[in-house]
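Schema walk-through. Below, the input block comes first and the output block second. Nothing else is stored per chain. Lengths vary across the set, and this one has 368 residues.
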Amino acid sequence: MNVITQFYSNFKNISWRSELFILYESLKVDRPIYIFIAIYIMAVFIFSNVNGYESKIQLTSYVEILPIVISISLCVSSIGYLFLLVIRLEKRPLFCFWIKLIKIYELRNRIITSFFLLTAISAFTSCFSTVKALIPLLNPFSFDELFHRLDLFLFSGVEPWKIAHGLFQSPWITLGLNILYNFWLICVWGVLCLFLVYPTSKLRLQYLMSWLLSWSLLGNVLAYFLPSAGPAFVSLLEPLNTTYEPLMSLLHAHDAWLIEHGSWVSLWALSTQDALWESYSTGKEMLGSGISAMPSMHVSMAVLMALGVYSINKMLGWVFWIYAVIIYIGSFMLGWHYAVDGLVSAPLTYVIWRLCGYCLRHFDLGDN
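--- output ---
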């Protein structure tokens, strides 16, 4: 009861003018991020209009689903925390949960600014999807054969997917890899939210700026100049090119075996690839649509997450580094990418991370 009384007393004594000032100061810290997002959105508008695709611009597609994603995230995290308290055999789990809510309330200004920033990032992500979908329309896929040859050169004449599948032959391993590959999206969202609410610091700003720069410079600019579809789509684009049919046949065989042996899920990669191809071939718009293999943004974000988390907690960071390796292997085992795609995106992501850190230190940004 004392805790509740103290909470009520603190709430009554809030100076709203002071609250607004603190909120304003918090928003000022994120000024470089807002400026970058504004410049990026303007560039996308200009790029789309110059090429006659202004009708393709999607500024709110991800913003519209943001309330749903946040609501689900809050519910899952709340249930997860309560479950953890029960597992720990807390004598008063609901009281502990209430204390946690009070602590969260005390961080209200940081959370409010995070919501503002998350909305801006959602607009950025919507524009990113616009550019990704435009890439094959403006610069048709023409680098698949080169990347295939680079794979052969780097792996001594053997296709890397054959090496990986030769080492991991079980369909159950393929399924596990597929699950971990799909879990990437939840990790990207979770680590992003972690750094959104992370105390104001150079590290926080470094991660968020690296996140935006990786998506825009690698996922848009580099993908535009090195357009490639990826192994799963090569034969669909060029019916006479059967280079990766053995890989796709193997994946379909694994999928059939899993269903026959009672797996509760199939290989999602195959159905997702079908959906992306339908979106591409029919011009149907969908969230996350767009085909682009080079560079691998799955690997890029996995490396960035490892760099960011390692800076906070080294032990957990090593877990993310192992996960980054798994994502890299999955990228070409599941037919999404050439092995070279990840070998390009990983070091470039590291360069972006280091450059952001250097600029923040040089210009003395990001501290309280």
